Amino acid sequence: MTTRPGRNNEPAVLVLTSLASGAKHGHALARDIEEFAGVRLGPGSLYGAITRLEERGLIAPLPSDERRRPYELTATGRAELAAAVQAMARVVAAGSTRLGLRVIDLRPA
Amino acid sequence: MSDDRQLLRWYPARWRERYGTELLAMVEDVSEADGPSRSLRRSLQLAGLKERLREQALVGDDRPAADRVRAGARVILVAWAGLVVAGCGFAKFSEHWQAGVPSRDQFVPALMYGIVVALAAVGALSVLGVVVAALPSLRAAVSARRLVVMRWPVLAAGALSVLAVGATAGLAAWAHQLAPAQRNGADAGYTVTFGVWALVIVAMIAAWTCAAVDAERRLEVSPALARVVWVCSSVLTLCTVGIAGAIVGWWIALARTAPWALAGNQLGAPTSPWAWPLAGQAALAVLAAAVALLGATRLISAARMGLRST
């Protein structure tokens, strides 16, 4: 895979994170992302990310609800998100330790 | 077409077909009652343009090396076509330039002029090299009838070529009957005809470039051919940049030592080094060089991936 979701504010990571809690269509995704990340993704950026993620098989469309088509995470997408979260967690852990902050435990429950 | 549908026009057709309806639904969801805001329109226009560039493999890091080489080569070919137009103008502008320049001041402009001529030949050979290397793919595409849709663009380019050859022959015959002053603006009829002839030449170059770009999209490119295209396109980029630099260098050299030669004035006559036709040709050449360098960035990204990955 050539473009792995990396930084936590990348639209691709944000979309995958949002879909981890269940299928959503475009507007619901944008609202959820704004709620948990404080990032406002416009329709252009959001659908750019959706296009890329669908091409890479990380998300899949569900049957269309009139004009609004929901998307869900695929198994590959879930694994990709887990890898991205773990990579970010290592940075968070290193940063927290070096700053003397409480380290967050992100191991699977 | 509704206003919202107009917004989708910035996206490529295939993308519109797949995502258009749901994107418009979301635009409705996030818009106020009076429709999408100006900033939302602008962001959609940018996103649409980005999708178009992505579709052509001109941006993005998710395309194989061969696609990047092809995209870069297409851009470089278009840049070269622009440079050929600028070069034709420069050839006309600079003819007989030595006549008004003392011998002692001729070295640098002659060197620059020589660079233009030499690099033009190398660039033309590079284009020819790609054409020759692509002949087997071209033959296969013709056999598979993948180029049938290109019949009209090629016929149009061919017709323009015939027209250009005829017009050139006619204009040359007419020019031989005129005095130098008449050929250089004193004869209004000749000047207008020359302008029309120049437009025919530009149209012919544009038509062949469009046909070549269209044909390239329909060819199957093997890894070996991709490597040839990579090498020739890199050479073409260097030629484009070199020629643009040499045209500007030629202008600067004459502006410093013999500005009267740029205006066709007598030796030593006080003259401004500014010449509008040359400025236009130099600007077009520099623009072509910039576009070629943009195309070369795709060649570089393909090389980083390794040209074997397709």
In brief:
The complex is a heterodimer of chains A (109) and B (310). With 109 residues, chain A is mostly helical.
Question: Architecture of chain A, according to CATH?
Answer: Orthogonal Bundle
Structural class based on helices, strands and sheet pairing of chain B: mainly alpha
Strands of chain B, count: 0
Number of helices, counting only DSSP H or I runs of 4 residues or more of chain B: 11
Please state the structural category of chain A: mainly alpha
Q: Which of globular, elongated, flat, extended, rod-shaped describes the shape of chain B?
A: globular
What Rg of chain B do the Cα atoms give? 24 Å
The residue ranges of chain A in which pLDDT falls below 50 over 5 or more consecutive positions are: none
The outline of chain A comes out as elongated
Low-confidence stretches of chain B: none
CATH superfamily annotation of chain A: Winged helix-like DNA-binding domain superfamily/Winged helix DNA-binding domain
Total helical segments of chain A: 4
- In the CATH scheme, the class of chain A would be Mainly Alpha
- Report the C-alpha radius of gyration of chain A, rounded: 15 Å
Following the backbone from N to C, one meets helices and strands of chain B in this order, namely HHHHHHHHHHH
CATH topology title of chain A: Arc Repressor Mutant, subunit A
Which chain pair shows the most residues in contact?
Answer: A-B, 23 and 22 residues
* Total DSSP E strands of chain A: 2
- Structural domain tally of chain B: 3
**Oligomerization status of the protein chains:** heterodimer
